[in-house]
Sequence to fold (299 residues):
Amino acid sequence: MKHLKNTVCATIAPMNEDGSIDLDSTIQLIRFLLDKGISCFYPNGTNGESLSLSIREREEIALAVKTTVDSSGTVFIQCGAASVMESQENIRRARQIEADGIGIMSPVFFPCDDHALEEVLRILLSFSEGVPSYLYNIPSRTGTDISAPMLSHLMKDFPSLLGIKYSAPDLLRVQDYLRLSPRSCDVLIGCDRLALAHMAVGGSGWVSGPAAAFAELFAALDQAVINSDQAQAMAVIRRIEEISSAIAGIPEIPAIKYLLVQRGIIQCDYCRRPLRPLTAQEKTVLDSVLESYTASLPT
Fold:
């Protein structure tokens, strides 16, 4: 059974100018990331614009990523959707393509108390029984929050549940997840700047969208962590913090796509609404960041 660890790239969904899915660019992106040393992938999540995609489009992307990665890495498909039935269909298709595992997102939009939230998660975990899975808790987007006691109950009842991806900068919650779990629990954080601090309190890794555009930097962080090279790890984190600060306020998903186009990795930076195109000023900032970054890469 494979697990997600260290850098997990939350991949974007490359699109053509007409908004259709660009599978050629998807494959090219995954090959680029593998070549640079990224080996864990989480497609069809927030950065993959999943709630703007059809079930068929999500399946096509998932299959392209899984087939390209093959045995060279680990692929967990985020299967959460706006409805339980659609989530179940995404899970079914992830099983068909033999993904290494799945992500299950908490419900979105509709008011949902803790009892309703846990019931929905139990329905989806029961449906995916036997498939390695992570819950996906992103309270700022869903309006729901998977508590540490709730995760503990679910970890006890579902052996194939490996842990949780938590997209909030709260290390106390991470510690609660780990402390209350009845067995070994993977906790992944969705905050690049907290990657090392997260690992220090017992986390398993970090899920990153920018890792797609700055793959060399995140691969270097992986290597420093694997080698227990604290000085190098801190140096890489400081560089990640500098980049994060420089591009703060620029919409992340359009920014990642723009940077990947500028690097010649994908063909188009189109995003579906409600994501907006970048302004000329935002592109100038990104051009400056990318110029500085590529200048620092080994030749």
Summary: The CA atoms of residues 178 and 243 lie 30 Å apart. The first helix runs from residue 23 to 36. The chain has a mean pLDDT of 97.
